[in-house]
Amino acid sequence: MPILFPAIDLKDGVCVRLKLGLMEEATVYNADPAAQARAFHAQGFTHLHVVDLNGAFEGRAVNGAAVEAIVAAVGGAMRVQLGGGIRTLADVERWLGAGLHRVILGTVAVRDPALVREAARRFPGRVAVGIDAKGGKVAVEGWAESAELAAEDLARRFEDAGVSAIIYTDIDRDGILAGINWDATIALARAVRIPVIASGGLASMADIERLAAPDAALLEGAISGRALYDGRIDPGEALARLRA
Length: 244
Prior knowledge:
This protein has 244 residues and is an alpha/beta fold.
């Protein structure tokens, strides 16, 4: 069964969704991240995708208190993964020790791939790589800079590193309900042996149907944010379709 990950993006301690990765284009959906996490669990979700947006820009944990509240609320019932501002082995160890199921390394995967390899070695199955791409090129530092590196080339660097997944985000579609870039996402999944999670643009039940298609079986799942918050996707219907 493909996994549908509801997303909690944290900015200044509250749940938001950005448009095209722009911090100034943030819509607040819930001032209580822990309550939002509990709501997702009550809807039947088993996994949760959390991003510290401020942390991604600043290179350190900024919304740590909100993340800790989420883990306290649902960490025993949901598998929570976190990205944003995790740049050192100490960061990885801290968050995994705090009850997270998995951490996502993005900028550091470009800047210091050896650190990713060491983290994956120390914590098998609990380290993922986030690849955020704009026009096919990897973006880093909270999407503010381009690394001039193709997403597929970055993914191949970690083929033998033991990372548990790649979260692939098409920035050009993120937060605008344009639909996931299925062609690029499935092409990436075919290019590497690492499981790929689709992110950016999931818009409607049509995307859920697409996730259930045979060729999408290559994917571990997909992340949904705005479409869930806006009610464009019914959680019960979506989860039932994926189970079927």
